[in-house]
Amino acid sequence: MKRSEETKQIKEYIEAIELLDAARTFRLLDLKAIQNLAEHTSLSDIKRVYHELKKDLEKIAYYPAQNPDFRNIAKKYALLKIFASSAGVFLMSSVMMFSFFPSLLRDIPSEAKLLYFALLLLCIIIINLAIITGYKMKKMYVRIYMQKSFSVKEARIKKATQFLINRLIEHAEALGEDLKKYSVRLIHDDYENIEKILVKANK
User: What is the pLDDT of residue 29?
Assistant: First the structure.
């Protein structure tokens, strides 16, 4: 096996481990990355793990969309984000314009000033509504996932991730490859032999 192919396989193990670790905290909502990896890798371990976890991963990724309340708040948040972006541009443009040309504000007629300040207030309200709605959506997102049915799926994903970590270590040792030069970043640090791949847990 060529050196480039050996390095590629190690990187594929690492990618699969990082993606599954993210799925444990329900952060893998787009399955394209793990699907593409499973389809194109030559490693049977990754193909088998993906095949075994496919239904669990799909259930986790698509579950929020099945909740009517979450769908409604997600739509509101998406709409508010669009308006908040425009409001932010308007606010920043106003601040910059009147910072460079303060006389413009003095020259604006009283009626126009009232309208302008009303628009500023509306922009601030929209931005704050977007922030509050986003916060509520995240809380609902966590509440949806913190159910007993998902704890079983999370345990299966952890077990599969541990299997790939063990296989990565075995694979690297067989090749005489030093894993210290690979940057493996995981969210969880509750795996066995984690020190051998120098994972830095991101809490």
Answer: 66
